[in-house]
Structures are given as C-alpha cells and as structure tokens.
Amino acid sequence: MRYHKPTSFADAAAIAAAAQGTLRFLAGGTDVLVQMRAGMVQPDDLIDLKHIPDVNQITQTPDGGWRIGIAVPGIVLGGHEGLTRDWPGVVEGMNLVGSAQVQGRATLAGNLCNGSPAADSVPGMIAAGAKVAVTGPNGSREIPVEQIPAGPGRINLTKGELISAILLPPRGKHGGDAYLRFIPRTEMDIAVVGCAVNLRLDGDKIIEARVALGAVAPTVILSEAAAQAIIGTTLDASALQALTSAAEAGAKPISDKRGTAEFRTEVVGVLARRAAKIAYDRAKGQGK
Predict the structure, then answer these.
(1) What SS3 string covers the chain?
(2) Buried b vs exposed e over 15-46: b needs ≥16 C-beta within 10 Å?
(3) Ramachandran assignment for 168, one of left (phi > 0), alpha (psi -120 to 50 degrees), beta (any other)
(4) Nearest Cα residue to 128 out of 182, 83, 95
(5) Do 16 and 23 contact (CB within 8 A), yes or no?
(6) Which residues in the chain land under pLDDT 70?
(7) In this predicted model, what pLDDT tens digit does every residue of 119-177 receive, in sequence order?
(8) What is the pLDDT at residue 287?
(9) Predicted local distance difference test score (pLDDT) of residue 53
(10) Residue whose C-alpha is closest to residue 200's, from 83, 270, 282, 89
(11) H/E/C letters for each residue in 96-144?
(12) How far, in Å, CA of 180 to CA of 193, rounded?
C-alpha cells in the first residue's frame, strides 16, 4: 500500500488521478480503517487528507453561510454554537452517527461519501440545500449534495475528484429545520427510515420548504411533492395529511430483516409530520 500525505487538495487530486487499483481517502477514517482491519478492502493507495490546511475548521462565509472542513468530526460540529443555531437539523443528523468514540472522528464528508441511503447526516444536508466543493484534476466545482449519492456504496464523482468542503447556505430569517430517524434500538443503529425538513415562514405561512427522505430508496430522496404539500400552508391538519401522503408516495423502499417496505412507507409519513412540526416551531422561535 502506498501512503500519501498531500498538503493541498490539488495535490490530492493529482495523486488520485494517477493512482491505479484500489484508492481510498482518509479523513475521519471511521469507515475505511474498519474496512481495512476487517479485510474488506486493501487500498493500493491511501491518501491522508488531514494534513491539508483548514480541513478541521468551521468558518462562516461572507454571505452568512458556513464552510465545513472535510475532517471536522461530529463532536466538534455539535459543539459549534453558531452552526447549531443556524442548522440544528444538520447537526442532529451528524450527532446520531455512531458512539461517542466514533463522533470524535466521523465526518460529514465521510458519511456522505460512504454512499449509504441510510446515512444520518445526508437528509439534513439535502434539506438544507447544502453543496459540496469538489476538487479534481481539472479544477474545482460546486455540486448540490443530492447529486453526490449514486446508489448503495457509490457516488457521482469522476476519477481524481474529491470533496474539499461542505457548504451550507445562509440560514436567513424565519427558518427552521429538523431531522428524525427510526431505529429498533435507542442508540447506535442504522436508520430504518429517516426524514429531514427545512422550511421558511412569512408570518405563520410556509413560503419555502425542502423535504428529504432517507433509507427508503437507493439514495436519499429530495421530495418536491412533499415540499409542495406544505408550502402556502400554516402546517394545519390538512397540510400535515398532504405531507404524509406525499412522503409515503415518494418512498420506494425494500423489505429486509430490519423492516418491510410497507412498514418503512408508513414510518416515513410519520417522521415527515413530526420533523415538519419541529422545523415549524423552530422557525417560529427563530423569528422572535
């Protein structure tokens, strides 16, 4: 195995583009190191990204958004007052990943690039309208988070490309978000269903919304129908029922040992209602 320690993303991209065989990036390492020790993967090239400047920093952008380094662990994310105030749903998702020990290493970028449809941090980022900065042999670009997952264990990046930052938009006024999941146990389990809701109010009326459904399809779903079900409403009973129906209709789950397709379909509607209520209450509180 060839171990690389680049000091810039451009260098990391060049190494990745030239690599032959199995390649892995190392930021938090909570997936790749476990896989290596279990014999599931043996990289020909391992690129350690932790020595690139600012990968462990959270910074506010001039427009009021947030730039999150690819090596920022969940425990730091959850302890950041400004980020937690603006995007509690994003932080909630990441804080559900693994144990306290895992939280000390696991990252948003790693959770996204693992390609799991049940990744807890991904629905919140998608609902928030987050983007990722991507660096490759031909330069840098920004991509909406929802365009990164391609299916279980797969992502839509070309050879030599890697994520160089997570970008959250400005929270703005009168907005709120939330993430909820269902698991069989109380802690440290993989989501059977997840749902994130992000919305904005004008008075009591919802004027913007994004709804992301997790673990009910090969990738996290950004449901336009679920969002439209609550836009223009005050989240009354009829709006919540419309949201439930839209979320259920948008789900395309499988049946496995952790839950049937029918069960997942019902639960996604329940979580959508609950997450929407939390996001709505947060938006009302944020406007005070």
Answers:
(1) CEEECCCCHHHHHHHHHHCCCCEEEECCCCCHHHHHHCCCCCCCEEEECCCCCCCCCEEECCCCCEEECCCCEHHHHHCCHHHHHHCHHHHHHHHCCCCHHHHCCCEHHHHHHCCCCCCCHHHHHHHHCCEEEEEECCEEEEEEHHHCEEECCEECCCCCCEEEEEEECCCCCCEEEEEEEECCCCCCCCCCEEEEEEEEEECCEEEEEEEEEECCCCCCEECHHHHHHHCCCCCCHHHHHHHHHHHHHHCCCCCECCECHHHHHHHHHHHHHHHHHHHHHHHHHHCC
(2) bbeebeeebbbbbbbbbbeebbeeeeeebebb
(3) beta
(4) 83
(5) yes
(6) 287-288
(7) 999 999 999 999 999 999 999 999 999 999 999 999 999 999 999 999 999 999 999 99
(8) 53
(9) 97
(10) 282
(11) CCCCHHHHCCCEHHHHHHCCCCCCCHHHHHHHHCCEEEEEECCEEEEEE
(12) 9
- pTM of this prediction exceeds 0.70: yes
- For residue 162, list its beta bridge partners: 135
The Cα 161–Cα 163 span in angstroms is 7
Question: b/e per residue, 260-277, with b = 16+ CB within 10 A?
Answer: eeeebbebbbbbbbebbe
Match 């991507």 to its residue by tokens: 134
Contact 145, 131 (CB under 8 A): yes
CA–CA separation, 106 vs 41, rounded Å?
A: 19
